Amino acid sequence: MRADIIPGAVFPDYELSDQTGKHRRLSELQGSDPMIVVLSRGGFCPKDRRQAEGLVQLHREIEVGYCRVGTISTDNLIETNEFRTGIGAHWPFLSDPGRKIQKDLDIAEYTDPTHDPMIPHTIVLEPGLIVFRIYNGYWYFGRPTIEELRHDLRSVLQKCRPDWDITKPELKSAWERGDKARFFPYGKSYAEVFANQE
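The chain above was modelled as a monomer; its predicted structure follows.
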């Protein structure tokens, strides 16, 4: 991984085709929410499929917790769709057959010249594409467990949600005064929040 991609740094705002062929930017997919980005070898890899199956289970929690997830692989559009559909995922899968990210982040898996995939990584992002944590998944147990991702998302949400602890007296006073700017959805309508969800 490129030396400047560390916790606290801003992750590049890549634009790639999603599973429908529509070009999407990571910042668009993230919105103002925490996000898990999986840099995947692709659907051919049984380790990546197993990790994605675990994320299918966590995704229901991710949705109700106002967080996001996205998978990026070097698969072409057909392989991307087969991977996503085959595991029953409902989040965006981005296709990078030109290996833009692999080259930019210097994560070519040189031990597999046949597939030429990325070294798999899982990256937890704070809002604004700020790197919170990076997991190197070359070996399967280098990847985060579902429980580790829950803990990461909890930590990020505590940092970015001003109303995380509504027992604080100043929050209760603000609410009673009608000052709701520090409460979800933070100045947006629920229609605006739901319109931006996948």
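The chain has a mean pLDDT of 94.
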